[in-house]
Amino acid sequence: MSLASGTFNQSYAQDMAILRTRTQRVVLLAFLAFLFTCPLFISETWLTIMTIIGISVISVHGLSILTGYCGQISMGHSAFMAVGGYTSAILCAKLGFSFWAALPCAALFAGLVGLIFGLPSLRVKGFYLIMATIAAYFIISWLVHFQLTGLTGGVFGLAAPKPEIFGMVLRSRASYFYLVMIIACLATVVAINIVRSRVGRAFIAIRDNDLAAEVMGINIWAYKLLAFFIGCVFAGLAGSLLAHYYAWASIEAFPFMDSVWYLGMLIIGGMGSTTGAILGAVSFRLLDYLVIILAPMLAETFPAIAPQASASLSLIMRGLVIIVFLIFEPRGLAHGWGLIKAYFRLWPFSH
């Protein structure tokens, strides 16, 4: 990453640091201060939106590592979130685990399930891998609905009790917001360090040219499976948080189309970028809220088509935004943000 004029790295530790200047540290501290004081001055509606954004950020981080960095396209991401949500609910409601013990277990189990469905990536790629991951969603859905009804509750679902800490149940939206944001921040730090490590560099090499990566000595089978494991761990973590937020684990909370939209978040934010995963999740969820605001206006302006247009406006807006980014900014918001930073870093000598 380039630095402002006159700023130089004097050691390897400085060169590898995530925050390399005082300005970056101040901006981060200001952002965290704003984030964790939000419940003091924003409404319950915005708390709900920001909580869902935090859960989405965690999930998209996993998809970013799997698809953006390793190049393994997955269309079954919501299925692995469902595995995490159901695992956490079963451990808490049926086996008496605490939320804090069930959360890492749910993430790890989702990662192990991801390993199983990641095996086709060793032999197929591209369109065929997409079909294999789509099949993963319907297989998991079938197991939940018809084969494991004693554990999952079948089509009725299963209660997922609210988390408890020091005897206090996190029932309020503000308390759950703090829980999600803390985990989202930790997940972001973990994702950044994964992609900066040797493992992350191996993922990028496989994404760019798996044959060349194998010639360089990279075990592409092992790293592809590792990418599926890591991506599904993040998905399981997000799924567990979502199930406990709703206080109910149901396959309807993890529809197949969510897998498409998570991939859309990655496209909007920018493939192969941790910042892009965050920007994509935030912008996509804010787009949903914008649709909620626009729907009544549309109903008043066009009363004849109001019911149909209002119901489909969300899908239209999501699809339109994804198409626009694919055509005009395929590298996503992260690329645009990088250009803005570069401009101000070089200003007034921008040439």
Task: Reconstruct the topology from this structure.
Blueprint: H1 12-16, H2 22-37, H3 44-69, H4 77-93, H5 99-118, H6 127-147, H7 149-152, E1 158-159, E2 164-165, E3 168-169, H8 173-196, H9 198-208, H10 210-215, H11 220-246, E4 248-249, H12 256-269, H13 274-301, H14 306-328, H15 332-346
Antiparallel strand pairs: 1-4, 2-3
Helix pairs in contact: 3-8, 3-9, 3-11, 3-12, 3-13, 4-5, 4-6, 4-11, 5-11, 8-9, 9-11, 12-13, 12-14, 12-15, 13-14, 13-15
Tell me roughly what share of residues is in helical segments: over 70%
Terminal CA distance reads: 18 Å
The largest sheet has its strands arranged as: 1-4
Number of strands: 4
**Strand percentage:** under 5%
Q: SS-based structural class? A: mainly alpha
Oligomer: single chain
Please state the overall shape, judged from the principal axes of the Cα atoms: globular
Order of helical and strand elements? HHHHHHHEEEHHHHEHHHH
Poorly predicted tracts of residues:
none
Treating each run of at least 4 consecutive H or I residues as one helix, how many helices?
Answer: 15
Overall residue-averaged pLDDT value: 89
Biggest pleated sheet: 2 strands, antiparallel
Radius of gyration: 21 Å
